[in-house]
Amino acid sequence: MDAMMMGAMSKDMMSMPDMADMDMAMMQECMDACSACEQACTICSMQMMSCAPACMNCADMCNTMMRAMMRMQGMTKPVMMSMLDACIAMCQMCMDACMEHADHSEICKMCAQSCKACMDACSKMRDAMMATA
Amino acid sequence: MDAMMMGAMSKDMMSMPDMADMDMAMMQECMDACSACEQACTICSMQMMSCAPACMNCADMCNTMMRAMMRMQGMTKPVMMSMLDACIAMCQMCMDACMEHADHSEICKMCAQSCKACMDACSKMRDAMMATA
Amino acid sequence: MDAMMMGAMSKDMMSMPDMADMDMAMMQECMDACSACEQACTICSMQMMSCAPACMNCADMCNTMMRAMMRMQGMTKPVMMSMLDACIAMCQMCMDACMEHADHSEICKMCAQSCKACMDACSKMRDAMMATA
Amino acid sequence: MDAMMMGAMSKDMMSMPDMADMDMAMMQECMDACSACEQACTICSMQMMSCAPACMNCADMCNTMMRAMMRMQGMTKPVMMSMLDACIAMCQMCMDACMEHADHSEICKMCAQSCKACMDACSKMRDAMMATA
C-alpha cells in the first residue's frame, strides 16, 4: 500500500484502545501480501488446472482478510486471530495444490510463492497479536 | 438458493471423496444464511452507526464463506472448519455491535438476527464436519 | 431479500431526494436476481468449462451491482445507469457462453437462465431510471 | 502487480485472438490503479463521513474491474468497455464526494487522488480499446 495512506490510516488506528500496540509495518506487509496473493490466485485460476477452485477460494479469503485489516474499527483481537487462522489454512491448501503443477506451470509456481508469502505474513501477525492478547 | 440448482450442485459434490457424507440440506441452509447476512450487514452499514465497520467486515466474510461452500472442490474439511470458525466469530462480534442499537434501530435489530442465524447455521455445519472428520 | 429488511431499507431510501420516485418492489426484484445470478455463476464456474471465466466475472459484477443497490446513498442515477449497463452486458455475455453447453450441462442451462433473469431485471431498472432521470 | 506474474499472464493473453493487440503495460497500470483505489476507498470509508457510501461502492467496483482484467478469457471488448465506463463513472463520483472533505481530511484527499488515477487509467484503457475495436 501507498506509504502516505498507510501513515494516515495508522494515526487513526493508534487511537483505538485495543490497537495501540500494533506493529504497523508488519500490518502493512501483511495487507500487501494478501493483495498480491489475491491477484496471483485470480490469474492462476484462469489456467483451469486442478488448483483453480482452491485459487478462487484463496483469492476471496485474501481480499476479505486485507479489507478486515483496513477496518480494524470493526474487529477485536480474537476475531482477527480467527480470521488469520482461516487465511493461513486457505493459503497453505492453495499452495499445496499449486505446487503439484509448479514444474509445468510458471504461473502455478509464482502463485504458490504468493500463497507462501501471505501465509508467513499472516502467521507473523497472528503471533504478534497472540503475544499482546 | 434455488432448489434445482442446489440439486445439480449436490450431485457434483457427492462424487468428491471427502464430501459424500455431507448433509446437503444443512449446507444449503448455511449458504442461504450467509447470503442473507451479507445483505443485512451491507444495508445496516449504511446507517453509519458504531456497528458499521463490523457490518462491513461481516458482509465480506459471509460472502467469502458462501462462495467457499459453493466451491468445495477447492476445500478440505480442516480448511472449511477454520473458515467456519472465523465466520462464526465475525458474526458473533457483529451481532453484539448491532444489539447495542437494537432498541433504536429496526435495521440493527434485523441485522443482529441475521448474524445470529448465520452463526447458528455455521456452527451446525462445523459440528457436523467435526463429527465426520 | 427479507421483506421486513427491504421495508426498513426503503424507508431510509425514500428520504433521499434523488430516490423518492424509485419503485422499491422493482429494486428488490433486481437485487434478488443479482444475488441468484452470483450464486449460479459461482457454481457454474466449478465445472471448468469454457464459460468459467465469464461466470467468474459475472459473479463479481452481480455482487457489486447488488451491493450498490443497497448503498444508494453512495450513488447517483447516472452512475447507477452506467453500472446497470455494465451488468447487463456482462450477464448477456455469460448467458451466451453458458448456452453453448446448455444441452450437455444442467448447471449451464440454469446459469444461463439466471443470467437472463438478472439481465431482464437490470434492464427494467435501467428503463425506469431513464424515464425519471 | 508483480512484474514476473504480469509477464506470465501476458503470454497467455497474447494467444487470445481478441487480445493480441492489447498494450500490456497499460493494462498493468490500470490493474494497479484499481487495486490502489480499492484500498484507499476501503480506508476512507472508515472515517464515516458523507463520502463513505460512495467509497464502499467504488471499492467493490474497482475490485471487480481489476479481476475482470485478470480474466480477459471471460471478456469481450464491448463488455470490457462497458465495465470501464461504469468504473470511470463510479470513480468520478467518489472523487467528487471525497473532494468535499479534502481540506479537512488527509485520507479523503488521498482517496480522491486514487480515484482520479484510477479514472484516468481506465479512460486510457477504454480509448485504446475503442481505437482497435
TrEMBL record, chains A, B, C, D:
It comes from the Bacteria. Pfam families: Csp. This is Four-helix bundle copper-binding protein.
